[in-house]
UniProtKB/TrEMBL annotation:
Any GO CC annotation of this UniProt entry: cytosol
PROSITE patterns per UniProt: PROLINE_PEPTIDASE
UniProt GO molecular function: manganese ion binding; metalloaminopeptidase activity
Protein name as annotated: Xaa-Pro aminopeptidase
Family of the protein in this entry: Belongs to the peptidase M24B family.
Catalytic reactions on record: Release of any N-terminal amino acid, including proline, that is linked to proline, even from a dipeptide or tripeptide
Organism: Proteus mirabilis (strain HI4320)
Pfam families assigned: AMP_N, Peptidase_M24
Span of domain Aminopeptidase P N-terminal: 1-135
Record-level GO BP terms: proteolysis
Keyword entries, A-Z: Aminopeptidase, Hydrolase, Manganese, Metal-binding, Metalloprotease, Protease
Cofactor(s) named in the record: Mn(2+)
InterPro entries: Aminopep_P_N (IPR007865), Creatin/AminoP/Spt16_N (IPR029149), Creatinase/aminopeptidase-like (IPR036005), Pept_M24 (IPR000994), Pept_M24_MAP (IPR001714), Peptidase_M24B_aminopep-P_CS (IPR001131), X-Pro_dipept-like (IPR052433)
Lineage: Bacteria, Pseudomonadati, Pseudomonadota, Gammaproteobacteria, Enterobacterales
E.C. code: 3.4.11.9
């Protein structure tokens, strides 16, 4: 993604800032794993969105003097030959303006002496208070210096505003460049799920299937999962965020895989559920067909002008109707929906935003009633989870099924970014048998 994309994002933010203001953004700190080892570094998504810069110890300051004048300053780490031999290359100050499109770059260690001067005389500071304690300390020290410097003609901004609602609204609507990266993340994630179906067999451990999935991610240039991979076989499929992935998979069980890659910062998020032995039992297929119908109807309904709340109503009706027919639920369908009795079996939301974060930012409205618009990207993930101790016919207990695709809302409907991995039960069986 070129620097013009990030410059356009910063300009969109500046357009919504008030005159005589500055917005301050902090890179994510490194996270210690244990002893002297760190977790692989992942930049804070808001900072990444505005800069494309993936080093820690960095601060972006956007200053809007008036409606026609603004400038950007980046604080980042200095070049250090010894540190770079041990820990990797640094961009430094000289290369930053050309590489990132900022107006000026200053050493990170100078922020204490420089930040208050950048804020001097402004009226407003945009800052995400409470996100990082060290960031609050840096900002409030600068403001305190200004407040105490009135005799030196220093003037502190009087208003503090949280920039997150503005930035997160910008992030909700994806550009063409972002959608292309989401397509790529979806394609690689789909290849991984296809590989899992082809490799799966009774007697494997869940973590071995996880290895097949993440092998596919890395081999296509997506070096990290976008979240911890879920590989839950048998009753483990009824645990929504099961990540132990340590059980030996048994003949006759289903396995639910919820896994996606991160590609250049953007997340894929796919769930498929299939039989470990390659053949659905009657009961497994009956539950599966309800979930699949819910997803297919959602794909038909999601378009500009509708909402997650509205589509969810249709999905819930399909699920309750199907469960009543199977004797898993009993009573009047409308009453079961009104009393939310179905939440024993479908307890999570149908959809969430997708982007730089797998559960991406952006306001959903009240009870997810926000009207969908072109450029929004979201998941569709209906699921039914029948606990092993549920008061239902024995043959349905312990079945957990979720199917999930990623879509972008278009001018006329939606584009399914993950349709290339099969979900029809007959096609799943054919793929696992090596027939397609």
């Amino acid at each position: 993604m070129n620097k013009q994309e990030f410059l356009s994002r910063r300009q969109a933010l500046l357009a919504q800032m008030k005159p005589a203001s500055a917005a301050i953004f902090f890179a994510a700190p490194e996270a210690q794993r244990n002893a002297d080892s760190e977790y692989p570094y992942r930049q804070h998504s808001d900072f990444l969105y505005l800069t494309g810069f993936s080093e820690p110890e960095a601060i972006l300051v956007l200053i809007k003097s008036d409606e026609t004048h603004n400038h950007s300053v980046l604080f980042n780490r200095v070049r250090d030959l010894t540190a770079e031999i041990w820990f990797g290359r640094r961009l430094g100050q000289e290369a930053a303006p050309e590489k990132l499109g900022v107006d000026k770059a200053l050493p990170y260690e100078d922020v204490g002496e420089q930040l208050y001067q950048l804020l001097n005389g402004l009226d407003i500071v945009y800052h995400a208070q409470g996100e990082y304690a060290f960031a609050d300390e840096i900002v409030f020290n600068a403001l305190d210096t200004l407040r105490k410097g009135s005799r030196r003609n220093l003037k502190a901004p009087q208003t503090l505003i949280d920039w997150r609602p503005i930035v997160h609204e910008l992030r909700l609507f994806k550009s063409d460049a972002e959608i292309e990266l989401l397509r790529k993340a979806g394609k690689i994630s789909a290849l991984a799920h296809t590989r899992a179906m082809q490799k799966c067999q009774p007697g494997m451990y869940e973590y071995q299937l996880q290895g097949e999935i993440e092998h596919e991610f890395i081999s296509h240039g997506a070096r990290f999962p976008s979240y911890n991979s879920i590989v839950g076989s048998g009753e483990n499929g009824c645990i929504l965020h099961y990540t132990e992935n340590e059980t030996k998979m048994r003949d006759g069980d289903l396995v639910l895989i919820d896994a996606g890659c991160e590609y250049e910062g953007y997340a894929g998020d796919i769930t498929r559920t299939f039989p470990v032995n390659g053949k659905f039992s009657r009961q497994q297929r009956e539950i599966y067909e309800i979930v699949l119908k819910s997803l297919n109807v959602s794909l038909e309904l999601y378009k500009p002008g509708t909402s997650i709340k509205e589509v969810t109503k249709h999905v819930v009706y399909i699920m309750v109707e199907g469960l009543v027919k199977l004797g898993i639920m009993h009573g009047d369908i409308e009453h079961l929906i009104e009393t939310k009795a179905y939440q024993r079996f479908f307890m999570h939301s149908l959809s969430h935003w997708l982007g730089l974060d797998v559960h991406d930012v952006g306001h959903y409205g009240t009870d997810r009633d926000r009207i969908l618009e072109p450029g929004m990207v979201l998941t569709i993930e209906p699921g039914l989870y029948i606990a092993p101790d549920a008061d239902v016919p024995q043959e349905y207990r312990g079945i957990g099924i979720r199917i999930e695709d990623d879509i972008v809302i278009t001018e006329t409907g939606n584009e399914n970014l993950t349709a290339m991995v099969v979900k029809d039960p007959d096609e799943i069986e054919a793929l696992m048998a090596g027939k397609i």
